[in-house]
């Protein structure tokens, strides 16, 4: 006979939490209902239950640790197998919160009012809306309590009757192998009631599908992937139960000018070659809205003399607002030095004259790069 600790895949001396976790995993894997009644799975499932019924009981476990299987013979352990009552208690304890629809215990489902389902709505907004906040109207299809029958599902003037199969309990019990299984009543679907004369509008369901219009407030500073919960705006509950919640998942549409980096906004601005060389001022775009906005959707930035492509200029306080504080990010402007195109003959002549006047001091990076390139070529070719 196999060692109980080996069956459950746990070491001797493991705590109760580790024991229960291993049992839950193995029992779910080898449950007969999940394996099409396979005989090997049923035998393995019975073996797992027998091991757990011993090791989960402190008295039985102590006897097993000291004397092995001989120490638990006659104690509903090895030799006789786990009893019907023991197995049912084990599943109540371990799986009551997971398989309440199959086993009795903590997970028992009432045939009374049930809470409605939560709903998800994917909402795409613009970066401008995320920046300043907005009120957005959405249309959500959801289950509504049928007004004709007030949610009973029965035609007005009639009432649902008690289900004869489960006696109004919503559950039926059957014996399978060495333990009993409790399931939702297949005739009434677990409601405990039967609608013999269904409502014409909801066809006995007690609910109808309708589209509802809701106003959603988008807070300033919301980021891509954020979730907004609207309590009580989900599906209506069955049999007069409370409504579920509506979860709105936010996605921010890519912007043609800006990228977001945390609270900062990044923007690339082309700079004429002359301005980059001599320095000067340029207009850069910014988002309009928010308490720090001066009413203009542009800011003036100073381009330093000799600015190169990739140089950044930071404008304080013109980035995204924070959801949780009064902090605000910056607008980070990356400069892109633009080479002039479609030059006239005179412009080309002036540029050639300018190039002839420039030396290493005007192009230090070019001079440094050429020096490194010459050393590389010398090493490769072996020339001095």
UniProtKB/TrEMBL annotation:
Which subcellular locations apply to this protein?
Cytoplasm
- The principal location of this protein is cytoplasm
Q: Does the keyword Cytoplasm apply?
A: yes
**Domain annotation J: ranges:** 3-68
Query: How is the cofactor bound here?
Result: Binds 2 Zn(2+) ions per monomer.
Q: Where are the zinc fingers (CR-type)?
A: 133-211
State the domain notes: The J domain is necessary and sufficient to stimulate DnaK ATPase activity. Zinc center 1 plays an important role in the autonomous, DnaK-independent chaperone activity of DnaJ. Zinc center 2 is essential for interaction with DnaK and for DnaJ activity.
The record's function comment reads: Participates actively in the response to hyperosmotic and heat shock by preventing the aggregation of stress-denatured proteins and by disaggregating proteins, also in an autonomous, DnaK-independent fashion. Unfolded proteins bind initially to DnaJ; upon interaction with the DnaJ-bound protein, DnaK hydrolyzes its bound ATP, resulting in the formation of a stable complex. GrpE releases ADP from DnaK; ATP binding to DnaK triggers the release of the substrate protein, thus completing the reaction cycle.
Its recorded name reads Chaperone protein DnaJ
State the organism of origin: Phenylobacterium terrae
The gene that this protein is the product of is: dnaJ
